[in-house]
Amino acid sequence: MSDRMHVATRKGLFTFDRIDENWSITQTNFLSDNCTLVHGDTRGDRPPLYCALDHGHFGAKLHRSRDEGETWDEIGIPVFPPRPEGEAPEIDSMGKTIPDSLQLVWALQCGGVDQPGRIWCGTIPGGLFKSDDDGDTWELVRSLWDHPDRKQWFGGGTDWPGIHSICIDPRNSRRIIVGVSCGGVWISEDDGETWSCHAKGMRAEYMPPEREFDQRIQDPHCVVQCPSQPEKFWAQHHNGVFRSVDDCATWIEIKNISPSTFGFPVVVHPDDGETAWLVPGISDEKRIPVDGQVVVTRTRDGGQNFDQLREGLPQDHAYDLVFRHSLDIDETGDRLAMGSTTGSVWISEDQGDSWTCLKHHLPPVYAVRFLKPQA
Amino acid sequence: MAQIRFTQNIQRHVPCPPAHVTASTVREALDAYFEIHSRAKGYVLDDQRALRKHMAVFINGVQIKDRDTLSDTLQSDDLLDVMQALSGG
Fold this sequence. Notes:
The structure holds two protein chains of two kinds. In chain A, 1% of the residues lie in helices and 39% in strands. By secondary structure, chain A is mainly beta.
């Protein structure tokens, strides 16, 4: 089991360790700085730990630790290529100007065990970058950036489109799956050389009916792949929950989940693609828990039935929202952790049946990540 | 030579000591500075080499006009201040 997890927040990075069956904060880093994402590599010797920061005035930065968070160095950061002289900034399909400058590091994912040094980075605006030297240098994946259908993407909760989910297929490290808000699900079979959109079946309530099923404008909030059944995927979408059992060839909408189908994160059991967890809010207009009660929903049968898991979670005037990177599951599938916008962090050691609050008053949580072996 | 100095707030992240540079525009001044202090560049300029949205540059206490191409002109004894804006915190 993973006995260490990192929690990235609006005001710093906090490391929790499980010692004598109790979880406590054992390390703080970047106190007062906006830590937007954390990602731990587990390949090789001295695997790096990455933390993305957004300094506001000074822009987004990446830091790396090679001693499990004791010390950090600033490393390279994805940079968008210079705009050709005289060329106007790009306009997205909703008519908004897209900045051709990094706004946010929104996804980090190490490559396969056969790709030492490889790490992928998804950004706002919707760029995918790759590094083969543990993040020292980055290269924009032009094949996706220059794909004509990328121009159909547009911003959702953020003003501009962005890549928030990156899955490296455990069967083949050259197969990369990315989730885009709002741009659907994209797959490369050849290490990023070519791309195609795979969001058939996803449905967009926020579009005119004629374009409801347009794959290129879907808004999956989070996309995950089951490591041991890699043909099975789950997506928490802007207006519903979807799953695929055929390698993203088609997506099936899972309806009638009580108390709600709206939310941001989803995780899947590492050994069972039929089992997944979600953390719902009311709706996109009301981003708070239903009835002020924090609940986790879990299915064990591919979405036919859902449990509402409440034990240990606040059930009275609680307004915690869990963002897309703020729910995680460890490599055993028994231990889950989540953090909320109001600074609560919970852990479950029994697949979500019961939860223990580790902290009530941290800054807003943007990412929770167990340190776990690469699939 | 124009003098260039940086807000104290940036020093926590990257050292930016004051310096004198030979330059006739803000762009030339910053290019000359970042040639020596390369890590500071990304803290002040965005990917297109425009001034970051929440940064401000003053010449003798007056904000520059051209934030994109940094074409505001400098005299040899001008004082260039690179500050963070009040917005963006």
